[in-house]
Design a protein that fits this description.
By secondary structure, this protein is an alpha/beta fold. It contains five helices and nine strands; from the N terminus they run ββαβββαβαββαβα. The strands form two sheets. A seven-stranded mixed β-sheet has the order 1-3-2-6-7-8-9, with helices on both faces. The longest helix is centred in the middle third of the chain and has 21 residues. The radius of gyration is 15 Å and the shape is globular.
Amino acid sequence: MFVGKKMKDKKRVFFSFHGTGGEAGQLYDIVTTIDPTASYIGIEGDVLEGESKRYFKRYKDGTADLKSLARATTLIYRTLKKVIAEENLEQSNISLIGFSNGANVISDLLKEYDLTPLNVVGAYLFHPVHFRKDVPFKNQPDLRVFLTAGDEDVFTDMDEIEELEESLIRHIPEVKLLQVYGGHELRTQEIIAAKEFYDARDNKNE
């Protein structure tokens, strides 16, 4: 997986995961809006759907190829550990941010691994889908999760997103869901709310 880096203040670092058709720098402007001083590390998907980059394969009906998802989750976890060691980020406050396909792979990461040892303190999931509903999240005692969903999203519905929220709440101390009017696209309202969430919580551990 290609890793793009724009290193600034190493106290606060965002690992970014793009949507289908995106690339490592897709969410850079969003991250700089949330925290202009934070370092940015984009991990680029290595699966192609036509010419669009993704992290895992999906079937024609939109459901996830679970073997491909498991591969992506394992590879991303290893990549996180490698980059944290290479950049000496062991003492950093790390946040994960993802849109669509990127949000989905973060969600699966939180089901497979306790990220507390990596000092992951925040996860920002823009327009995820609730895959693997029967698999619980790992207990993440230091983690705060912000997620958004459009009430007319063609890939999911609010009942599923609320199920995802409830599943997160069982294992993570602070979870905030923002429902917005619209479909499967990022809106300014979501970015502003993510910054407010970050400023109120994630920045306390400086």
